Amino acid sequence: MKGLWLPFFLVGLTAWAVPPGMPICERPHVVAPAEEQPFPEEVQRALDALVRAELTREPHAGLAVGVLRGAQRWVGAYGQRDVAHGLPATPRTTWRMASITKTFTAVAVLQLVEQGRIELDADIRTLVPAWPEKRWPVTVRQLLGHLGGVTNYGRFGPSHDSGPVDTAGALSLVAGYELEAEPGTRFIYSTWAYNLLGAAIETVSGQRYGEYLQEHVFGPAGMEHAALDDRRTRDEHHATGYRIRDGQRVASKVIDVSGRFAGGGTRATIEDLLGFGGALLDYRLLSRTSSGWMQTPMSTRDGRLTDYGMGFATWPLRGHYVVAHSGAQPETSTLLLLLPGEDVAIALASNVEGQAASLKRIAYGIIELLLEDTGPRLSAHRQGPVDAVVNEALGRVFGYGLAYHQWATHGPGTLPGTGALPEAFEQVTRLLDRAAIERAPDTARERILAAHEPREDWLFVRVGAHMARTLEEALGPERLRSYSARGPLAFFNDYLAVCESRQCPEPFRFNEALRADLRRLTGNNIEPSRH
């Protein structure tokens, strides 16, 4: 494999006591195909322990976890896919994918874009004539990024999931509603928008949506058991769904998801989902260029980032560039998380609803375990509200800069922005000026929170990425990777030390006032790194 404000669709969970008699977890099933390697035994034990610790926090039934890092692979299955019959979860268990289906749809659309059969900026009505004319045209690109103004579930009662429907029936569920906003002006997450894309896939390919996925997405990714989630064709390996009510595990509500076919209507095993993640990292489903489009966050017309690309949410996490999608439906909670700049894929599926926060904790714990065991974090010594604002800005320059550098250097990304770097460094210096922050702290913080966006010409991204590139050239890639664990103060201190030894032009060294702030926040003088 090649060495990278949307809500994560994650909600908080109530901490329930574990009901009596509930199994915590079974021994994990670990599978390592011949062409791949298992993680070292100590890493496998640590992964297993991490998952088990999470499962003690609250009720669960079945859970599957898969991890890829380069050629290394680990899959664990825990608990029961069917509690009433005592059937264990295994790697062969199939789970509802819910909204992860959107990533399959986005891949299919971009494949057809690569072939010249779909134009990203085409009006969807040229591909789906059954979609009635609205006040504004809606493009394929806008639908992929949830910028088309199409409504979501909130306007619907429960009846739309009561029975099987075909593509025309799924489109009719939403066809009568007007757009909630002018396309391009507002992010509105919408499963129905993805149903329109599914219909476009059928028009252009001449295949039913499920058939297209089998031939062009599931097959090439080795997703042997992935399919549309038709309750009538499920086999004995499918997980029975549960939800937690008043601290007790009860059966999920029975719904039909054919009306969500391209936005939430598939099922797969954990190995299927992990295989899909690996195929994306390997560029087996899309070219490097198309993968970069998919993973690039889109923005509204006024330059505000949505933190969602084409079928995936994106955000920086301690200098990692995260590409992810979660899923939530009756019977299931799912998560697929990729780090394209670091060749990592993490897949999770549970047959208990409302487990988004739990899956997120597991995924973040895996990232820390695999990529951040590199020394203690340098903590800030803050002495008031101005220090807090300055420290937050340093963290954002570091987080966005390192993440985008890794994604653009080792993944399919491209660094954004057009402005000159010396001026960008000067702008950051002015933003972090203590006197200006003291005069108008709310205004200063608002500007800092927007400084990574297109409306500010990606200021923090460009400055932070230049700093990361400088550190990688001077200290090497291994040292650069260490900053995810060591934190923004270590990142800034080492950068300034490198600049001192290299005699960087003054704008690239910020100014003495900011350097003094760094010394105070760090609690000691900055010393040059050895390199």
Index terms:
18 helices, alpha+beta, 531 residues, disordered C terminus, single chain, 40% helix, three-stranded antiparallel β-sheet
Structure annotation, total helices: 18
The helix fraction, in percent, is 40-55%
Whole-angstrom Rg:
24 Å
Structural class: alpha+beta
Return the average pLDDT rounded to an integer.
90
Low-confidence runs: 1-34, 525-531
Gap from first CA to last CA: 30 Å
Counting DSSP E segments of at least 2 residues, the number of strands comes to: 13
Percentage of β-strand residues: 5-15%
For the report, how would you describe the main beta sheet?
Answer: 8 strands, mixed
| Overall outline | globular
What does this entry look like structurally?
This protein is an alpha+beta fold and 531 residues long. 49% of the residues are buried. It has helices spanning 41-55, 101-114, 140-144, 167-175, 191-205, 209-218, 261-264, 270-281, 288-295, 356-371, 385-410, 421-431, 434-439, 441-450, 459-475, 477-486, 488-502, 512-522; strands at 37-38, 62-69, 72-82, 87-88, 94-96, 227-228, 242-245, 248-251, 266-269, 313-317, 320-329, 332-339, 344-350. Mean pLDDT is 90; it is low at 1-34 and 525-531.
Q: Could you give a quick summary of the protein structure above?
A:
The protein has helices at residues 41-55, 101-114, 140-144, 167-175, 191-205, 209-218, 261-264, 270-281, 288-295, 356-371, 385-410, 421-431, 434-439, 441-450, 459-475, 477-486, 488-502, 512-522, and strands at 37-38, 62-69, 72-82, 87-88, 94-96, 227-228, 242-245, 248-251, 266-269, 313-317, 320-329, 332-339, 344-350. The protein is of the alpha+beta class and 531 residues long.
